[in-house]
Amino acid sequence: QVQLAESGGGMVQAGGSLRLSCVPSGGTITLWSFLGWFRQAPGKEREFVARIRWTGGNGIAYGDSVKGRFTISRDNAKKTVYLQMNSLNPEDTAVYYCAFGTATSWDSWGRGTQVTVSS
User: Fold this and answer.
1) What count of Cα atoms within 13 Å lies in the side-chain half-sphere of residue 83?
2) Region for 89 from its dihedrals, namely left if φ exceeds 0, alpha if ψ lies in -120 to 50, beta otherwise
3) What pLDDT score does 28 carry?
4) Which residue, 20, 37, 46, 104, could crosslink 8 as a Cys pair with Cβ 3.0–4.6 Å?
5) Which residues contact 69 (CB under 8 A, 6 or more apart)?
């Protein structure tokens, strides 16, 4: 099973930026594999943020609430997926989770990293 390690969370003021990183290890990564980011705020359901194909075509998609502000990318040489978050606002405050799976099914989850945006 693929294991995921997130990093890069923290506290930032509204309008600021953060970059999250996710490093997958173990398991089997195939041409159909995707890495994604989800988030969950207190009292709310987990929300899709972004996804990217691990190899080949990008297969990039974003949740509506982050389009134009967040950018997902990968560095296969470093075996890392990034989530660049710009123009952050307090509504972006949540625990952010890295996930591994296919475009429609997520099989592995990281432990999460807290992002807090103050107004």
Assistant:
1) 32
2) beta
3) 83
4) 20
5) 85, 86, 87, 88
Measured CA to CA, the distance from residue 110 to residue 35 in angstroms comes to 11
Q: Could you read off the pLDDT of 1-12 as tens digits, one per residue?
A: 899 999 999 999
CA distances from 5 to 8, 64, 104 (A): 10, 25, 21
26-84 residue pLDDT tens:
888 887 899 999 999 999 999 999 999 988 777 999 999 999 999 999 998 999 999 99
- Give the end-to-end CA distance of the chain in Å, rounded to a whole number: 39
50: left (phi over 0), alpha (psi -120 to 50) or beta: beta
How far apart CA 109 and CA 30 sit, in angstroms, is 17
Is a pLDDT exceeding 90 seen at residue 87?
yes
pLDDT at 30 (0 to 100): 81
Residue position matching structure tokens 């470093």: 78
35 close to 28: Cβ distance less than 8 angstroms:
no
Q: Give CA–CA dist 80/8, Å, rounded.
A: 12
